[in-house]
Amino acid sequence: MSTGEDRVVTIVTGAASGIGAACVRRLAERGDTVVGVDLAAEVDEHVRTLGGALGVVADVSSSEACEAAVALAVERFGRVDHLVCAAGIERNEAAHEMDDDTWSRVQRVNVDGSFFMARAVGRHIVAAGRPGSVVLIGSINSAIAMPGQAAYVASKGAVLQLGRGLAVDWGRHGIRVNVVGPGVIDTPLNARSFADPVRIAYYAGRTPLGRHGEPSEVAAVVAFLTSADASYVTGAFVAVDGGWLAGELPPSRMED
Ligand SMILES: NC(=O)c1ccc[n+]([C@@H]2O[C@H](COP(=O)([O-])OP(=O)(O)OC[C@H]3O[C@@H](n4cnc5c(N)ncnc54)[C@H](O)[C@@H]3O)[C@@H](O)[C@H]2O)c1
Q1: Is the dihedral of CA 195, 198, 199, 204 positive or negative?
Q2: What distance, in Å, lies between the first and last C-alpha atoms of the chain?
Q3: Any idea where the domains of the chain sit in the sequence?
Q4: d(CA 141, CA 113)
Q5: Residue 202 among the catalytic residues
Q6: According to the model, what pLDDT value does residue 73 have?
Q7: Is the pLDDT reported for residue 39 higher than 50?
Q8: Which of 29, 52, 77, 185 has the fewest other C-beta atoms within 10 Å?
């Protein structure tokens, strides 16, 4: 076992639930020192239960909170090598009924939060002169829209372009930046949908693999993208969606 000094340090936001929690578990299992960041007060306990090293309560929509979380990780563990931005929120509301606060909050958490965390980690990695990587969790909604989700799809489209912008900026510093686009994944974010059998049947029918995904299946791709196996992958959008974005299915399959 390596010492704390030479272990890879990875920060995961949204670490207390769903995809972020699965990333904490997966990356800790491979030996990373994982620092989880989340709004949830119990994040430290949760992250340690998953095998992570530390959980930090922070709101990623605050640039100061993001800077402080990264500074704390560097202070405690000496370095940061990888960042996974999984903190995110969704609001279902018709565009013409949406108020300013709903629109802004979704952009602030999903877009500003990804940028603030990536900037804080990028600054550290550039100064350290070591290679590193960032994975932003986008969505199939980075590429396509669904009704009632104007704020969310706008934010996820921006996350995709943010990832590309960072990849182009930071390639010369050896920082790879990729965007993962999950399809329908069984997490608390989707609790309402998963409680509705009609909706779940529609999702399964609409997905070429015929089922929803598990958070661990997204975490496996995040693990690849933050590994040396992905050393020539940057600026990519990797859908983890059971084939959703590959195309439409014929009506017969939709009725299965
Ligand atoms: N579940 C899906 O089907 C699905 C599909 C596509 C994309 N995504 C994306 O994956 C990411 C993770 O989603 P999930 O399904 O695991 O959701 P989740 O609700 O299970 O987990 C999200 C976590 O982010 C945290 N969080 C929310 N706002 C925060 C903030 N301001 N600061 C810090 N932490 C904050 C929450 O406390 C929560 O622990 C999100 O970006 C989401 O948009 C999810």
Answers
A1: positive
A2: 50
A3: 4-254
A4: 17
A5: no
A6: 98
A7: yes
A8: 29
